[in-house]
């Protein structure tokens, strides 16, 4: 007969409270969720959800307020004043590296 093993995981209290509220609505205990996760790992041989860094994308201003846009513009002005500038070639290299295309 298999024995139950205790697993201790540190989770910040806000995240824990939010997740457990949803789990209660679903009728799932935290232990039940961890057991489901482990079983999926065993069945599929992988983590059952995507674990990756989000793609870095250019900032789209369409959904930003005028204040947010002006803040970005001011950051750019501050960079220029502080000498944090790039040549055209450096900008093209950064765009190619971050976004996968050559301008």
Describe, in plain words, how this protein is organized in 3D.
This protein is mainly alpha-helical and 103 residues long. It has 2 domains: 1-52, Met repressor-like (Arc Repressor Mutant, Orthogonal Bundle), CATH 1.10.1220.10; 55-103, no CATH class. Helices cover 55% and strands 0% of the residues. The chain has 4 helices and no strands. It has helices at 13-26, 30-44, 66-81, 88-99. The longest helix is centred in the C-terminal third of the chain and has 16 residues, at 66-81.
How many individual domains? 2
Based on DSSP secondary structure assignment, what is the total number of beta strands? 0
- In terms of DSSP E residues, the strand content is under 5%
Oligomer: single chain
Name of the CATH homologous superfamily of the largest domain: Met repressor-like
Order of helices and strands: HHHH
- The end-to-end span amounts to 63 Å
Helix content: 55-70%
The CATH top-level class label of the largest domain: Mainly Alpha
Question: Key features?
Answer:
103 residues; mainly alpha; Arc Repressor Mutant; 4 helices; elongated
Give a short summary of the structure:
It is built from four helices and no strands.
Give the topology:
Layout: H1 13-26, H2 30-44, H3 66-81, H4 88-99
